[in-house]
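[Q] Does anyone have a clean structure-token version of this?
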Amino acid sequence: MPPLLTRSPAPDYRVTVSAPPIPGWTPVYSGKVRDLYADDGRLLFVASDRISAFDVILPTPIPDKGRILTQMSLWWFDRLADIVPNHIVSLDVPEEVAGRAVICQRLDMLPVECVVRGYLAGSGWTDYQRNGSVCGVELPAGLQQSQQLPEPIFTPATKAALGDHDENIDFASVVGLVGQERAEELRTLSLRIFAKASELAAGRGLLLADTKFEFGLDAEGRIVLADEVLTPDSSRFWDATAWQVGSAPPSYDKQFVRDWLRLESGWDPASDLPPPPLPDSVVKATRAKYVQAFETLTDKEFV
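[A] Here you go.
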């Protein structure tokens, strides 16, 4: 049976990533945030406290980030179970990673980032300004930044190896990667999940601007939702009261980190220099934003 993650990571030359040892488990993969271990056919999927920006892993972790991402994904997996099965097998994980790990299925991961956009932001806004479309999806003229789209659109991307950039692709490229029937299934499923998630988020006073999903195939060839889902690392959530067409509202993610790196640190992401350590104020503000996202969505206190 194929491994959960079939792509080979390209090591980031600025930060060495290695999964910490867990007795009885063999490390098989380390990404920007997650570590994967194997043991007698089982897979242990661990969310670390690592944080990345501009596709580079930073040297300073964000305390509790891995626990927050894991608990938020579990909350969403429960609410999406009527639409798509997920990769969770058990929460009975080693004590060393309690609260930040799951035991999951082995899946043959599909080589597509399934991105859905409900608002015009980020790279979608950049593409629209350039050619009036996003990933080959033609949009009406005259739209503004952060404007809600007439309907959500499927705007896929390629999966990049560690240290590389994901690249937006059109639907025909997805067909070339996985075939016509599978591509249509991924698009339909992604849009259904986005619609339900948007409705749930709206009930908490949040707008789901865009998000990405990852899917794999189980031993029977069925599509399974994997990795994380609808967290601040994979999604752009806005406070509905702060949203305004024509500007970029603050989002519940690592924007504090990006802003400090870009505006205050003096570090150039395009350089060969390693990123600087994050100051305590940025670490605390970023952790608080992740906690706020969790508590706002789940209506639970993070402890």
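[Q] Thanks! Anything notable?
[A] The first strand starts at residue 26 and ends at 30.
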